[in-house]
C-alpha cells in the first residue's frame, strides 16, 4: 500500500463543478486523491487521510491519526454535541459559512414580506376559492419597523442589508458588538437582549445551536417582546422554546412567525403550529440553491491554497463553542 498522504473528497463529482477533482490535484500534486462517500472505502484508507471534504463519518474522526483538516459542507457545527470527544482532537475544522448568505437571507426576507402582507391567509383563501381580504391589523408596512437580528454572521449581515435597503431600523446582536456589519445601524452584545426586546417589531433569528443559545428565546423573552411582534427563525430550531412560542402566538403577543427550523424535524403532525393561520412553515430548505456545491467548492479550493502555503484557513470553527 502507498504511504502517500491522501486528500479525501467526500463528494459526488457529478454534483460539483466540472473539473473539480482536477482542480484539487493541480493545487496539491503531492497528495493522492480519494473521491468517495463509501464508508468501507474510507475506512480502508483512513490512516493516510490528511485532508477531508464534506463527507467523513463523524464516528471515524478519532480513528484518523493523520487528519489535519476537515472542511465541512455546512455552516453549523452542532454535530459536535453528539461527538464531544472530537472537540479535543488536533485537526482544524472549517465550515462553509457564507455559502448560505444569499438564499437564506432571501428566504428570511420572503417570510417577512409574506407575513406583512398577510399572504398565508390569502393563499388559504385561494386554495378554497374564497375572496379573502385582510384589513388592519393583519396587513402592515415593513418600512420604519425595527428588526433585531440575532447572530450577525454572513447570513445575518446580508439580511440586515436587505432590511436597511427597505427603510427598516436594524439592530444587530452578536458576541462581539465591537465588530461592525453592513446594514446594521446599531450593534449590541448578547447581554443586551432583554433591553432590546420591548422595542423590537421583528425578531430575526440566525443563531447557531450551542449550550449558550439553546432556548435563547423562551417564556421570559416572549414576555418582554413588544406586543404584536413577528418572529422569523432560520437558525436552529432549539434556539427557540417552541412551546413558549406557540403560547405567545396563541395569546397574540407574537403576531406571526416564519419558521424554517424546528426542535424536532420533520415537524410532528400533531404540532399546533400546522393549524395556525399566522404561521408560515417551510421544511428546513432556506439554504437550498443550485449554486450550493459550487460555493462550497470555492471555499474548499481557497482553503486548500492556504493550507498548501501554510497560511491560516478561512472559516475556522472553534470546536469548544461550536462555531
Number of helices: 9
The profile of the biggest β sheet is: 7 strands, parallel
CATH architecture of the largest domain: 3-Layer(aba) Sandwich
- Strand coverage percent: 15-25%
Our count of domains comes out at 2
The largest beta-sheet arranges its strands as 8-7-6-9-10-11-12
- Under CATH, the topology of the largest domain can be stated as Rossmann fold
Structural account:
This protein is of the alpha/beta class and 323 residues long. It has helices at residues 20-27, 39-44, 101-116, 119-127, 154-165, 193-196, 219-224, 242-251, 292-309; strands spanning 6-9, 32-35, 49-53, 69-71, 92-94, 146-150, 169-173, 186-188, 202-205, 229-233, 254-259, 279-281. The protein folds into 2 domains: 6-99 and 290-309, Rossmann fold; 101-281, Rossmann fold. The two termini are 37 Å apart. 38% of the residues are buried. The model has no long low-confidence stretch (mean pLDDT 95).
